[in-house]
């Protein structure tokens, strides 16, 4: 019986792609780079932490300076350009009413995750919000999921992880929990299916139907 549902953030509960793209373009302009990456390229490049993200678009010597510029800009960009995914608020509210414990596991830095969730008034839905502190935590490593289960006293067979990327599915498998993959984020449908999640859903609201059947 499922008791705990852990969520990824970007592409699963929140659409912050435009905010990420705006911060990247600001950073590249400040560093003297040419044309910025498209929103489609940005969407496909996230999910592995912001340092790894900016590294994709600049030379190694610029990464530290670029990351500092990106982070300074990103605080305001998140508030200006982010929104909850359609149906996300209703899903979280319904799951709380049904008695599930809810948590977040994200590769995004904790301070930006909190800015994002607080701005969208989603933060109070969760019993725990856990984010990667360094490379040892990054999904597909299972550290974030295992930490949440341990602190909330929930077994693997009582836990479900929901994300939009193949890396989320792999993290769930590495942690020994079932995963639900949501289409429309940073991974393609074929990538999600290849990762072999428990279920693939077309939108976050479909999660309610899956849980109703169990």
How does the helix and strand content classify structurally? Answer: alpha/beta
**Largest sheet features:** 6 strands, parallel
Question: pLDDT average, as an integer?
Answer: 94
Provide the succession of SSEs. EEHHHHEHEHEHEHEHEH
Strand content: 5-15%
**CATH topology title of the largest domain:** Rossmann fold
Q: Count helical runs.
A: 10
Uncertain runs are: none
Radius of gyration: 17 Å
Taken together, the total number of domains comes to 2
Number of E-state strands = 8
Per CATH, the class of the largest domain reads Alpha Beta
- What fraction, in percent, of the residue positions are helical? 40-55%
Main β-sheet, spatial strand arrangement: 5-4-1-6-7-8
Question: Distance N terminus to C terminus?
Answer: 8 Å
Record keyword descriptors for this entry.
two-stranded antiparallel ribbon, 214 residues, 2 domains, Rossmann fold, alpha/beta, 10 helices, DNA polymerase, domain 1
